[in-house]
Each structure stands twice: as C-alpha cells, then as structure tokens.
Amino acid sequence: KRIVIFASGRGSNAEAIHEACENGTVNGEVVGVICDHAGAQVLERARRWNVPSTVIELKSFENKAAFNDALLEAAVSYKPDLICLAGYMRICGENLIHAFPNRIINIHPALLPSFRGLHAQRQAIEAGVKVAGCTVHFVGTGLDDGPIITQTAVPVYDDDTEDTLSARILEQEHPSYVRAVAAYCRDELTIEGHHVSGMHGHH
Ligand code: GRF
C-alpha cells in the first residue's frame, strides 16, 4: 500500500510508521511526506529516508481554499492508498476528505471523544482525569472526529505535568498508530461492521 504522511513538526509518529514499513510490520511504503511548515523536523526525516516531500504553507496562498486545493493536488500526485495525519496540526479541507473517503487516518493524544483539539494532554491534566491516552481514528469533516479504530490508555499520576503526561502518551502513540496502519494495509479494518478495504486505492 502507498502511504502519504501529513505532518507539521517533529515527526516521531511519521518515523514510527516509516520504520514499520521498512521492517515489514506494515505492508506498505511511505511514498511522500506533505508538510505545512518549511523547516519542520519531519522534513529532515524524509530526506534521511529518501522519501520525497512537499512543503505547502498557508502564507504562500491567497486564501484557505487555495491552500486546501494545493494540499489535495499534492496528495493526489503521490497516488496514495492511505493518508496518515501524524502530528498534523490543521483540519483537513472537505475537498481532501471527499477525495479519499475512509482513507485518511489520524492520531490524537487523548481518548476521544474527550479532549478534542489542541493541547489535549493539557486538557486532561486540567480536567483531573486519572486515565488518559491516544486514539487512532478515520478523519471525518469535524475536528478530531470520525470512526475510532484503536485506543490505548495510560495512567495519569497526581504529580504529572503536561510534559510528563505527553511523554507517557507519546510512548503509546507509536505502537498504536503502527498497529492501526498495519491492520489497514492488511485490509482488516472495518467501520461499524463494514469492511474498509484499501483496495480501491491507486495501484
Ligand atoms: C503527538 O502527540 C500527536 O498525537 C499530536 O502531536 C504530537 C506530534 O508528534 N498530534 P510527532 O510530530 O508525531 O512527533
């Protein structure tokens, strides 16, 4: 399966997915990285992997619609079977979601539907929850919305800070995301009992 990764920054989830493709855990290949920030660390990672990348920055466009069109055009150019949002800090345009139905997945550092949006780990600390975690889900048109694929829980300790909790969640994000991508690429993912096959992708 051809995987395109959208990322905005550090790219540790992207690294985990790429590593899993390389070592055969995932029956896939990262064929492109699309990033909305020039200079993001994920671009260094793509160079190291010899994977092509496309930088698309909002400030280079007249408006959001033109930006979203450029993102769609870049994604289509890589002919992906699956798009993985990995530390991607924007909401996908509806044009992208409609172009790749049930073929865009995302990882969110909270147990959805709790704590959608930014700083989810901080939201968990402020809410005083005793259990936090991460969610891998299909991307719908809403913010951090869409059918849940897998969730992993981690304990929250009384002396946790946003950083200590984020680190504990991140440790689980990588294997969680890899498990979900591996299942997708084996055509084993279903939504409400309907088989989500990646087979209708480009070959
Ligand atoms: C991760 O915690 C991810 O869940 C969130 O932002 C962080 C990005 O990490 N969206 P990375 O860029 O994958 O290292």
Automatic annotation (TrEMBL):
The record marks 144 as: Raises pKa of active site His. Catalyzes the transfer of a formyl group from 10-formyltetrahydrofolate to 5-phospho-ribosyl-glycinamide (GAR), producing 5-phospho-ribosyl-N-formylglycinamide (FGAR) and tetrahydrofolate. One of its GO terms (cellular component) is cytosol. Its EC number is 2.1.2.2. HAMAP family: PurN (MF_01930). (6R)-10-formyltetrahydrofolate binds at residues 64, 106. N(1)-(5-phospho-beta-D-ribosyl)glycinamide binds at residues 11-13. GO terms for molecular function: phosphoribosylglycinamide formyltransferase activity. One of its GO terms (biological process) is 'de novo' IMP biosynthetic process. This is Phosphoribosylglycinamide formyltransferase. Belongs to the GART family. It comes from the Bacteria. Pathway: Purine metabolism; IMP biosynthesis via de novo pathway; N(2)-formyl-N(1)-(5-phospho-D-ribosyl)glycinamide from N(1)-(5-phospho-D-ribosyl)glycinamide (10-formyl THF route): step 1/1. Residues 1-181 form the Formyl transferase N-terminal domain. It catalyses: N(1)-(5-phospho-beta-D-ribosyl)glycinamide + (6R)-10-formyltetrahydrofolate = N(2)-formyl-N(1)-(5-phospho-beta-D-ribosyl)glycinamide + (6S)-5,6,7,8-tetrahydrofolate + H(+). The gene is purN. CDD domains: FMT_core_GART. NCBIfam families: PurN. The keyword Oxidoreductase does not apply.
